[in-house]
Design a protein that fits this description.
248 residues, D-Maltodextrin-Binding Protein, domain 2
Length: 248
């Protein structure tokens, strides 16, 4: 009898102590630990494994049967494609709206806006790859609308994700167009607003609406649904707002 009770207790623990794997766009890498920590206040037994990458590459992995239960993209295009192909089981919802910012390790005069990129001192400009990263699409659009893309394209250094682009901006380039969320993370506190970084004029690019879907691998999983609901909650929105995102 005691053995039966013990086995029952162990089975109950295993049910409540699950692990979920979620695919997360690289720009959210700076906020995801804070989000996980807050989620685990309500769900302390749920382990959240995060796979980071560009939205395009994560989508390719999902299409090749990667074991992800939920996808937090940097745009709406990829989640919408997954939903139309019946790989996602929920319609895409916007969980945050991202923004572009300049980043340079050197002091810069950001009052001139995009024209700072024409400076003779700016020889390399880091941007995310528009083929795989939505923030790269936004950067290319901003440069085009400012009339600078053709003039400056030989200076571009492409990162495969926005997190790699941040690294390039801080090491291999003179300046970069990065996700604002990266600059409000604790690990980037040495970089000061209006000295090392500044917002890119939001009228130059289409708002970066970031979409989320539950995937087939997460269908019917209550812990995946709990994390999905949490990301849309007031507490999660407060965290995202603190990292420079716009939330409704």
């Amino acid at each position: 009898m005691k053995k039966t009770v013990l086995l029952l207790l162990l089975s109950l623990v295993s049910v409540s102590a699950g692990e979920i794997t979620i695919a997360v766009a690289a720009n959210v890498s700076y906020a995801i630990e804070a989000l996980k920590k807050e989620f685990n206040v309500a769900y302390p037994q749920t382990q959240v494994q995060v796979i980071l990458g560009s939205s395009g590459k994560l989508t390719a992995q999902i299409k090749h049967d990667a074991p992800y239960g939920l996808f937090m993209s940097a745009d709406m295009k990829y989640p919408e494609a997954l939903y139309s192909e019946k790989i996602a089981v929920t319609e895409p919802v916007v969980y945050a709206q991202g923004a572009l910012a300049f980043l340079s390790v050197k002091d810069q005069n950001y009052t001139v806006g995009m024209n700072i990129l024409e400076s003779k001192e700016i020889k390399k400009i880091a941007i995310a790859n528009p083929q795989t990263a939505p923030y790269g699409i936004a950067a290319a659009e901003a440069l085009t609308n400012a009339g600078l893309y053709e003039e400056l394209k030989e200076k571009f250094v492409y990162g495969e994700s926005i997190s790699q682009t941040v690294t390039y901006a801080a090491t291999a380039a003179d300046i970069g167009l990065v996700a604002k969320s990266s600059l409000l993370s604790p690990q980037m506190s040495e970089y000061k607003e209006n000295i090392h970084w500044s917002d890119v004029n939001e009228t130059l690019y289409t708002p970066i609406s970031q979409g989320m879907v539950i995937l087939k691998k997460g269908e019917g999983n209550p812990e995946v649904k709990a994390f999905y609901d949490f990301i849309l909650s007031k507490k999660a929105k407060e965290i995202l707002k603190n990292f420079g995102y716009k939330v409704e």
